[in-house]
Write a structure and sequence with these properties.
- The strands form four sheets. An eight-stranded mixed beta sheet has the order 6-9-12-15-18-21-23-24, with no helix packed on it. A six-stranded parallel beta sheet has the order 7-10-13-16-19-22, with no helix packed on it.
- The protein has three helices and 24 strands.
- It is of the alpha/beta class.
- It starts with a strand and ends with a strand.
- The longest helix has 13 residues.
- It is globular, with a radius of gyration of 17 Å.
Length: 204
C-alpha cells in the first residue's frame, strides 16, 4: 500500500485516498489548528515541509487544493524539497487504456476519460467529469464536477473548467483561463480570460 502525505486537509480528498487504497500517514495544512482531522494527525504546515521530508522520506505527496495556481505553487515548492508525488485515481473512474496521465494528478469518483486523451501533471478531474476522445488537458488544470470536454479539445495549463459546463469539439482554452459554471464554450478562448454563459462570452 502506497503511503502518502496530504498537502491540504480536505475531507473529500481524505475519503478519495482511502477509497483508492492509499495509506494516509498525515496531513500538512497551514490553517488547521487541531492535532487530528478525520482521524489523521496534522503534522505541520508548509514551513515544516523540509523537516517532514527528512522524517518521511519514502512518503509521496498528494496536493489537494482545487485552484490551479495554488496547486502549481505547492507542487513546485514540494518538488524543490525532493518529494515524490502520488497520482490518485478512484476505482470507479473509467479510463481508456490509451490515456496518458501525468504525475500528481487526481481523478475522482465517476470520472470518464476516453481514448487517446492526455491528462497533464497535477490536474484535478472532479466527480463525474467527462473527458471525451483526443483531448489535451494541460498541467495544473481543474475540470469541475459534471463538466464535459468533447472531442479534440485542448485545455492549456492552469485552466479551470466550471461545474456542468460543456466545451465543444476542436476548441482550445488558453493558459490560466476560467470557464464559468454551466457555460457552453463554442469557440477558442484566449489566455487569462473568464468566459460565462450560453454561448460562452468573455467577461475579463
Amino acid at each position: 500500500m502506497k503511503r502518502v502525505l496530504l498537502v491540504g486537509a480536505f475531507h473529500e480528498m481524505i475519503e478519495l485516498c482511502e477509497e483508492s487504497g492509499l495509506e494516509i500517514v498525515g496531513l500538512i495544512d497551514n490553517d488547521l489548528k487541531a492535532s487530528y482531522y478525520y482521524g489523521y494527525p496534522v503534522l505541520g504546515t508548509d514551513e515544516d515541509a523540509k523537516a517532514l521530508h527528512e522524517k518521511y522520506p519514502l512518503c509521496s505527496v498528494v496536493i489537494t487544493p482545487d485552484v490551479p495556481a495554488v496547486r502549481k505553487r505547492l507542487a513546485e515548492q514540494y518538488a524543490s524539497l525532493g518529494f515524490d508525488f502520488a497520482s490518485v485515481i478512484h476505482p470507479s473512474a473509467m479510463i481508456s487504456k490509451t490515456v496518458r496521465i501525468g504525475q500528481g494528478t487526481v481523478i475522482q469518483r465517476g470520472v470518464h476519460v476516453s481514448s487517446n486523451s492526455h491528462i497533464g501533471r497535477f490536474c484535478k478531474l472532479n466527480v463525474n467529469a467527462n473527458i471525451m476522445h483526443d483531448n489535451e488537458v494541460g498541467d495544473y488544470a481543474t475540470v469541475a464536477p459534471n463538466a464535459v470536454l468533447l472531442g479534440y479539445v485542448t485545455i492549456e495549463e492552469g485552466v479551470y473548467v466550471g461545474a456542468n459546463s460543456t466545451v465543444l469539439p476542436n476548441v482550445t482554452i488558453g493558459n490560466n483561463s476560467m470557464v464559468g459554471a454551466g457555460a457552453v464554450v463554442v469557440k477558442n478562448v484566449q489566455s487569462d480570460c473568464t468566459v460565462v454563459g450560453i454561448p460562452a462570452k468573455s467577461i475579463k
